[in-house]
Design brief:
By secondary structure, this protein is of the alpha+beta class. It has a domain of about 120 residues: Sandwich (Jelly Rolls), CATH 2.60.120. About 45% of the residues lie in helices and about 20% in strands. It is built from nine helices and eight strands. The strands form two sheets. The chain has a four-stranded antiparallel sheet with strand order 1-8-3-6. The chain has a four-stranded antiparallel sheet with strand order 2-7-4-5. The longest helix has 25 residues. It is elongated, with a radius of gyration of 18 Å. The N and C termini lie far apart (about 50 Å).
């Protein structure tokens, strides 16, 4: 049940069998169907979840009432609203499964206990934050500096499997364009209209 998260953990830190047992004792395995809301903006986020199988979406609703997709966690990614998880304040993000998902979940209390009992996990979660911050910075730069077509090509290069798993309108929302314009980019018709 914990093989995938153990492989992920080993990319960051080395654990003894006893430390791994402590980690496992603090985790909860969840199977959730597609279209399950895991977090609603306004609620406090009390979990971090590792995706063993499936695909989800993390999004917010802007002032115009439109959904803006931030990322699509798939296998070996983590899902949470970290500011809410850390502070206990209301979440600004929504999290919903796109596919049926197998998740390994750790609660705020369990994570605090993990850090107290196996301090080297602080390194793992710090490395995760650094990677997430790097992705966020790259995403921000591409949104500001690239055309919609360039952003789509970068999306395909970085996440080649996602167009087969994520509906086109959600990819368009992620790219900050309409689904119609994404269709034109995919077909090459937008160049003829310029």
């Amino acid at each position: 049940m914990f093989e995938a998260i153990d492989r992920y953990t080993e990319t960051c830190i080395s654990l003894t069998q006893e430390e791994r047992s402590v980690f496992h004792s603090l985790l909860v395995h969840k199977s959730v169907p597609k279209k399950t809301v895991l977090l609603r903006a306004g609620d406090a986020c009390d979990f971090e979840a590792f995706v063993v199988k499936g695909c989800a979406r993390v999004f917010f609703i802007n002032e115009a009432g439109k959904e803006v997709d931030l990322y699509f966690p798939v296998e070996n990614w983590w899902i949470s609203d970290l500011p809410s998880f850390t502070s206990g304040k209301p979440a600004s993000l929504n999290i919903e499964t796109i596919e049926a998902c197998e998740l390994i979940v750790i609660s705020r209390e369990a994570k605090a206990k993990l850090f107290a009992e196996v301090p080297k996990f602080e390194r793992m979660f710090r490395l995760m934050l650094q990677r997430a911050n790097e992705e966020l910075m790259n995403r921000f730069i591409s949104t500001v500096a690239m055309s919609a077509e360039e952003r789509y090509k970068l999306f395909l290069k970085k996440y080649p499997e996602l167009p087969n798993r994520v509906p086109q309108q959600l990819i368009a929302a992620y790219l900050g364009i309409s689904a119609e314009f994404l269709s034109k980019i995919r077909s090459g018709k937008h160049k003829k209209e310029d």
